[in-house]
Amino acid sequence: MFTGIVQGVAEIDHITEAPGLNTLAIRFPEGTVEHVTTGASVAINGTCLTVTRQESNILFFDAMQETLRLTTLGDLGEGDGVNFERAARIGDEIGGHLLSGHIHTTADIVEIVHSENNVTLWFEVPHDWAKYVFAKGYIAINGASLTIGEVAGNRFNVHLIPETLRATTFGTAREGQRVNIEIDSQTQTIVDTLARMGYDQPAR
User: Fold this and answer.
1) Which UniProt keywords apply (predicted)?
2) Which of 29, 51, 86 delimits the end of a domain?
């Protein structure tokens, strides 16, 4: 499990392509991968991956074709920055909200609005997933636990303070960029339960 509190930005060192999977070699900041062992889970842009080996501060991860297809990991190239979070341990503070590291869908950044003390990012999700997006609700974007601001159809925004921009890859976000989305599990459960009970039908 993860908390959605991004622990830093790592960099794609190189990618090795093989039939059926890509091996991502990711260089982490000094001091952030101490006591990591083979088999440990790390969220890379919100996607739970397993460490296959380690060379100093470079960790290696295998991503299958299905993972590359369903997430933005297939878009990555050498030198790209990624958000990372090591798996939570029992007793850790939950500063965001609980995440599984399983990506539900992707969204596109459709607008970036700069103001004096923050940046507002607008995202567009596939229509099938918009039913889980509510103003003031939780959502994970590239592994970061964020609070939804406004919702308009299948678009929503988040407001980011300078510290979030500094500590994550959102500081270099650009319009047209795809991001990974993990819907809040409690929200999904409630919406799906109400739908099964028929409460998603329009009033007559």
Assistant:
1) Repeat, Riboflavin biosynthesis, Transferase
2) 86
Q: Do residues 28 and 59 touch, judged by C-beta distance below 8 A?
A: yes
Nearest to 50 by CA among 87, 93, 6, 5: 87
Cα–Cα distance, 173 to 80 (Å, whole number): 12
User: Whole domain around residue 67: which residue ranges?
Assistant: 8-86
Residue 157, φ and ψ in degrees, nearest 5:
-130, 165
- Given pLDDT bands bounded at 50, 70 and 90, which one contains residue 139? very high
Q: Is residue 41 packed enough to be buried (19+ CB in 10 Å), middle (13-18) or exposed (0-12)?
A: middle
Tell me how far the alpha carbon of residue 117 is from its chain's centroid: 24
Q: Is residue 202 predicted with pLDDT exceeding 80?
A: no
CA 32/CA 61 separation, integer angstroms = 16
> Cβ distance 57 to 33 under 8 Å?
yes
Instruction: Give the pLDDT confidence of 62-79 residue by residue, as tens digits.
Output: 999 999 999 999 999 999
Query: Quick check: is 44 in a domain?
Result: yes
Q: Is 71 exposed, middle or buried (0-12, 13-18, 19+ CB in 10 A)?
A: buried
